[in-house]
Design a protein that fits this description.
The protein is α+β, with helices and mostly antiparallel strands. The chain is built from two helices and four strands. The longest helix has 14 residues, at 54-67. The radius of gyration is 12 Å and the shape is elongated.
Amino acid sequence: MPDPLIRLRLIYTGRVQGVGFRATVRAAAKRFGATGWVRNEPDGTVLAEIQGPRSAVDACLAGIADAETRMSHCWSEL
């Protein structure tokens, strides 16, 4: 059975602006074959949308968590 395609929208909180966090997200997505976008929000959070095969998105999330363990996150699947 093929890996299903998914899309997640994530809101990262904590110290995520001005510390290279967006670059970390982009690098993880590229490394694991996911696509999407990431941006700073006026309230100090970072909003990201990551999509691709479930295995790529899961690997991307794990890569982000490994790189930035001080960040908290929540997500909803669209």
